[in-house]
Amino acid sequence: MNDFSRQATRLEAIGGHYDKWLLGAAMALASLGVVMVASSSIALTQNPFHYLTRHLVFLAIGVGLAAVAMRIELRDLEKHNQTLLLGCFALLVVVFVPGLGSSVNGARRWINLGVSKFQTVEAVKVLYIVWLSSYLVRFRDEVNATWPAMLKPLGVAGGLVLLLLLQPDFGSSTLLLAITAGMLVLGGVNLPRMATPVLAGIGGMAMLAIFEPYRMRRITSFWDPWADQLGSGYQLSNALMAIGRGEWTGVGLGASIQKLNYLPEAHTDFIFSVIAEELGFVGVCLVLALYALLVGRALWLGVRCVEMKRHFSGYIAFGIGLWISLQSFVSVGVNLGILPTKGLTLPLISSGGSSVMVTCVAMGLLLRVSYEYDRAVRRQAVRADFDAAVPVEAGAPIDAPAPAPAAAMAAALPEGAARGTSRMQSRVEPTFGRLA
Questions:
Q1: How far is it, in rounded angstroms, from Cα 293 to Cα 301?
Q2: d(CA 33, CA 352)
Q3: Domain count, the chain
Q4: How far apart are CA 8 and CA 31, in angstroms?
Q5: Are 307 and 317 in contact (CB under 8 A)?
Q6: Structural domain of residue 180, as residue ranges?
Q7: Could you tell me if residue 398 is inside a domain?
Q8: Is 247 helix (H, G, I), strand (E, B) or coil?
Q9: Strand locations in 227-354, DSSP E?
Q10: Does residue 410 lie within any of the structural domains?
Q11: pLDDT score for 420
């Protein structure tokens, strides 16, 4: 075995490490969620631990799925991008199938799995982010230069939004459009060209909200919840009373009054209000700091991956970071009365089987991105040391470049490790760092 083959084998043996900050923030939020679900749901049923037990079961399933996601090679996942897109549409259509789809309060957003119901849009969020990341890699030059390449993901998002509005699910529709716009911007889209469809989309969503009676009631109650405190403003007014009672340090864990059947959905959509009441301003700041750490680390990881030409990994990190930041912002904003009610859960904290499981999967993918990035950095460092140690061939001119082992090591890689991912410019996405 020659030196190049030995070096390639040595590089293949080098692994990576999962980002401790990401893992720590996710675990802290999930742990806080367990405590607050137990506290906020204790008076909802005769069995005080009913929702806690249910939450722990779904959290355990989610952790198991996250462990699987953490072991999937991202380049293998990228190969199935079209299948993932078809899965998005299939999941949103299947809720309308009689006998399989399930309706709750007039909305058909769930499928009946027998032991539980699953809200399909939660899975769509992850699958769509992975597909859009793949699309931005394959067409990253065209997205910035041509109208069709930019409009295609907007058209796909529009199709998904149409299916969501038929359920209806206005909150998830808005979130999906916002994630699409954010990822296109981070993917290098021409901003002046994108302004037209974005403004049109905002106008269309605003018209849908204005001309739908129940959505308009949410907007008017958001403007002045005290005008109809026992009617359309009941939920928000009780949420604001809970937040006001918390003051600086809260009334104490478990001592909330509003959760005693005064505040609807206290363990799901309005769990932030219970946190504010029981843990006060200090607890609220802790929750926001954990989300800031999680999202900030995800965006930092995305930037670092893109700098290393690992665009697919970077865009996944961007997408998940945007999703968590936007959904947590909307959830907190609804509880504080600065946004109309949207029905979005607080990621990793709120009770809800579908949301908990899928968010755990997203965290698993994000940790996989961190693992592959760290692995690439380590392998790149070893390769750089090897390059520096390669002697200049005897008789070669002093200023002649030393023989580069990159090509030899690339030949020693497993089949399929090197591949082009852009239609306009061939690019190699190596296993161990940049081989440019």
A1: 12
A2: 11
A3: 1
A4: 42
A5: no
A6: 7-377
A7: no
A8: coil
A9: none
A10: no
A11: 39
Q: What is the pLDDT of residue 6?
A: 64
Please name the residue that has the structure tokens 């002046």.
192
Exposure string (b/e) for 144-183, b if CB count within 10 Å is 16 or more? Answer: beeeebbeebbebbbebbebbeebbbbbbbbbbbbbbbbb
Long-range contacts of 225-229 (CB under 8 A, 24+ apart): 225/337
Residue type, 393: E
Q: How far apart are CA 271 and CA 349, in angstroms?
A: 8
Decide if 89 contacts 163 (C-beta within 8 A). yes
For residue 426, what is the DSSP state? -
- Distance, in Å, from the CA atom of 182 to the CA atom of 409, rounded to the nearest integer, reads 37
Helix (H), strand (E) at residue 237: helix 234-246
pLDDT computed for residue 1 by the predictor:
52
- Given a cut of 70, the residues of the chain with pLDDT beneath it are 1-9, 212-218, 390-436
Is 147 among the domain residues? yes
User: Could you count the other beta carbons within 10 Å of the beta carbon of residue 83?
Assistant: 10
Whether the link from the prior residue into 403 is cis, omega within 30° of 0, is: no
Are residues 266 and 40 in contact, defined by beta-carbon separation less than 8 angstroms?
A: yes
Q: Does the residue 422 lie in any domain?
A: no
